[in-house]
Amino acid sequence: MKTLVLLLVGLLSMFLQSKLIQGKTFLINCGSNATANADGRKWAGDSIPGDNFTLSSTGIVASTSSINAEPIFGSLLHFFPIKFENYDTNASAFDVSANDLKLLYKFNVSEEISWKSLRNNSVVTSVVKEYFLSVNLSELQIEFVPNVGSFAFVNAVEIIPLPENIFNGSINKVGGDGLKVPLSLSDQGIETMYRLNVGGPALKSNVDQFLYRPWESDESFMFSVNAATTIFNTSNISYVSSNDSSIAPVEVYESARIMSNNEVVEKKFNVSWRFYVDPNFDYLVRLHFCELIYDKSSQRIFKIYINNKTAAENYDVLGPDSLTTASGTDALLNGLEIFKLSKNGNLAYVSERIDHNGEASSSKKPKRKALWEAVGAGVIDEGNTVAIKRAHPLSEQGLKEFETEIEMLSKLRHRHLVSMIGYCEEQREMILVYEFMANGTLRSHLYGSGLPPLTWKQRVDICIGAARGLHYLHTGADRGIIHRDVKTSNILLDENFVAKMSDFGLSKDGPALEHTHVSTAVKGSFGYLDPEYFRRQQLTQKSDVYSFGVVLFEVVCARPVINPSLPKDQINLAEWALRWQRQRSLETVVDPRLEGDYSSESLKKFGEIAEKCLADEGKNRPTMGEVLWHLEYVLQLHEAYKQSVDSESFGSTELGFADLSFITRAGQKWEAKLSGLGWAGWVTSALLCSISRCSGLRRSRFGRRNRQRLYARDLPDN
């Protein structure tokens, strides 16, 4: 399908009204006056004259038709962020309603894409929002309302009539001991949250010839893939009723996961899947079963738990649930769907997942702007300028972060950590007062703000300062402290561009001595988040190291860590830069404003550090102390390079070495006894940065005759 888009700018709302004729599907190619072919279907442009959809005014597509019953329709909204003339769809935010049912609130497509990429541990480029609605009016009206100062857009819309048996009229209440509750779409809407093909591959929408629903693979949602075995059977699969064929395509039932591993069964392990959902809603969980091995009842009996509550005590796929548990049997699952049920006419959730700066937590979009408001600067005492941050008074998450930040900053003091001056918590107001950082965030000096570019030396110095702050966090307390939200917007710069780590609201105490990690819910910022931490929910200091590795590449490339508007292989900065680094071609993606300001040696070493920080497994990543050591070495390489460049402007005889007498070792300190114009400080400094790994000096020729360049030689530790 062509990436066409219908934009609404400066309008209060957009109305999409389709003729609702029972049994007919509407596929709308928004913003187009042509028909497009995709997934084996024809999508009509909404601007085609004489078609079912006519453009009655700017941003409004309208037509009406009466219907006699209350049919159920599936409504699918397709979003693909692109740059359209002067509008950047990555920055749009809007609300969506359907016949007064709120579907989306302050929806940002790029944030949703970022969240799905994180959730699936893969690159996602588009979003499809799927809803089930009962229409008791003469028309279905879908309304898009841009937020103030923003605009709305949609690429395509599907309106699909659904069979009456798409959902059962009554369902079992989880933990209700057999209690059944009614389910009616006449007074509520449903949103699809997850649809998984368990044990099999992802299925494209055209596999489902009835409703064209895509099915994701379940692998990325499992606690442990090794806890189950995948089985396949493509023969003799039949539905209980012919009407059930519309519930799921047969391909879903041709694969399954079972607990056939005897060790797993004997130890009573579970096969478990984990999903992130919006709080304070009811959910419908539909499990799909098809027995692929046995042909009689009571041969496979198992328990089903949902959210730590019993959904089925002794479930038998081929017969009624057993009254007693059969020993030696295992579990089976073919497919899984999770649907969110509307509450008080609302399906929208103001989620705390990901904001435009890439902030994220596992509970969905961390919109930290909803939690904290940067009030700005103030003056206290004798004219001392301070920074003031105010928490949102209605945010429970803001309260938790407020308390954590006070707790952490009260026991931390370091030159490279932002200092807390005081706080206020009165009459539901929560205010933190910090030292004022005149030069703002590191991110603002890398891109997006129009500020002068930082030099290579400034960037390395800033990274060293941030590394020192993190190293202190990890080692300065008994158990250490894990920052958990390391990113360029949390590295602040004072008037002298000294870097200081800030924002400790997500920080956690490190593990006790007898433990290797802290088990905790996943929080952090998308693009910086340690994938190992995300998969296992096991937080370590190496999670900070991973995030810092992303910061290093961000400093080199001066671009956002996630940019959905770029080609697919460039969306994620860490993956993109790492590919170039592994090809030893990092210079290809360096910020062009740094041209001529760095040496290949210092950049090479810098890239190697970042690469090590981004190792897949935490055990293979360096500590922050090791990262700091290598960054200081990068700085020495850069200073040596600048000295050599500066020397080109002098005659060779003026800079010839006089009396390079000898090198001595005093304890663990190396000293270079030199005399001569301007060189002693350089050599001494280079040696001191390599304590315990330096065994001497090596001289090499450069430039004109009689010039010598000295640098530390790395050798293995003794």
From TrEMBL:
Location(s), subcellular: Membrane
Gene Ontology MF: a single term: protein serine/threonine kinase activity
Domain of life: Eukaryota
Domain Protein kinase: 336-633
UniProt KW keywords: ATP-binding, Glycoprotein, Kinase, Membrane, Nucleotide-binding, Serine/threonine-protein kinase, Signal, Transferase, Transmembrane, Transmembrane helix
Membrane topology qualifier: Single-pass type I membrane protein
GO cellular component: plasma membrane; plasmodesma
Span of the signal peptide: 1-23
InterPro entries to which the protein is assigned, alphabetical: ANXUR1/2-like (IPR045272), Kinase-like_dom_sf (IPR011009), Malectin-like_Carb-bd_dom (IPR024788), Prot_kinase_dom (IPR000719), Ser-Thr/Tyr_kinase_cat_dom (IPR001245), Ser/Thr_kinase_AS (IPR008271)
Record protein name field: Protein kinase domain-containing protein
